[in-house]
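Tip: read the tokens left to right.
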């Protein structure tokens, strides 16, 4: 599908924000500035943006422990996210959720989730609600190759098919469930075939190619909006960092990460595609690069200077009150 100039600029900007956000977190974590565990999304940007550029603000999404890219792609405020990760007042969850629990209901972002495989049941529930209201909206869950082995995911997929829920299960196969390669962890070795066995179509795309992801997701979203039930999106991709910051990555082969960065980086792929087709210029993209770096600098400076949440907030936002 041909995207407009503005749509192409937005897609590149979103991917670049995710990349620079994560690369800066890598630096700040190394300086000891950020508490807690952090799982970086660098390398998978085309997946999040290709998916979310097909969504409206009122479509619902559930993320994972590796969720920063999903949040940004869905429209969450970058500065609010940075404050949240720093555990500071003014964060999207008032500094009480941290890296693995960012949520913004105003953007349809139902939350990142530290429970592996915890997102799909929530997305199915949201999809059923939208179907019952007749809104034409869809819900999306993200999950990796590790989550796809969880019973919660199997149950969610089965229920979605039975009830024709307008939900899309996005499977980002970055090849490692923590430190275990999916070829060992998936008994059949065939994630696509196993997912199809539930009775839904699976659309496949190269996770490092924004355009392939966008087109595949459009098919899935169109089915959901038309009342044709659930779909899955299978995206083989790589992550450029370890499972979690501090992971020594001894399970990777020699020069594996170096090769991945050279052959599977979505940003230079996007740049080459649009400039060779004369859709955008290098100058257009260079300008975005500069703007994004300035944005990330501002986000880090504001998060670093922000106060911690006041003690009186300790018991707020803990329980729902009716």
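Filled-in amino acids:
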């Amino acid at each position: 599908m041909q995207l407009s100039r503005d749509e192409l600029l937005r897609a590149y900007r979103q991917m670049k924000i995710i990349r620079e956000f994560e690369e800066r977190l890598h630096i700040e974590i190394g300086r000891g500035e950020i508490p807690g565990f952090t799982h970086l999304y660098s390398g998978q940007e085309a997946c999040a943006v290709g998916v979310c550029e097909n969504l409206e603000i009122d479509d619902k999404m559930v993320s994972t422990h590796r969720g920063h890219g999903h949040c940004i792609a869905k429209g969450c405020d970058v500065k609010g996210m940075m404050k949240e990760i720093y555990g500071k007042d003014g964060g999207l969850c008032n500094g009480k959720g941290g890296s693995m629990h960012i949520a913004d209901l105003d953007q349809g972002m139902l939350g990142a989730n530290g429970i592996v495989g915890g997102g799909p049941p929530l997305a199915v529930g949201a999809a059923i609600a939208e179907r019952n209201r007749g809104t034409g909206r869809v819900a999306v869950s993200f999950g990796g190759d590790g989550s796809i082995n969880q019973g919660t995911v199997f149950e969610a997929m089965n229920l979605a098919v039975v009830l024709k829920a307008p939900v899309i299960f996005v499977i980002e196969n970055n090849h490692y469930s923590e430190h275990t390669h999916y070829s060992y962890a998936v008994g059949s070795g065939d994630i696509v075939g196993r997912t199809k066995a539930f009775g839904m179509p699976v659309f496949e795309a190269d996770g490092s190619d924004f355009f392939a992801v966008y087109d595949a997701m459009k098919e899935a979203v169109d089915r959901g909006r038309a009342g044709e039930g659930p779909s899955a999106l299978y995206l083989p991709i790589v992550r450029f960092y370890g499972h979690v910051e501090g992971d020594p990555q001894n399970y990777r082969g020699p020069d594996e990460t170096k090769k991945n960065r050279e052959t599977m980086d979505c940003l230079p792929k996007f740049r080459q595609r649009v400039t060779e087709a004369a859709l955008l210029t290098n100058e257009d993209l260079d300008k975005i690069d500069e703007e994004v770096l300035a944005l990330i600098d501002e986000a880090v400076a504001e998060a670093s200077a922000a106060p911690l949440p006041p003690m009186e907030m300790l018991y707020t936002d803990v329980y729902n009150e009716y």
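The domain at 5-299 is CATH 3.40.50.970 (Rossmann fold). The chain is about 45% helix and 10% strand.
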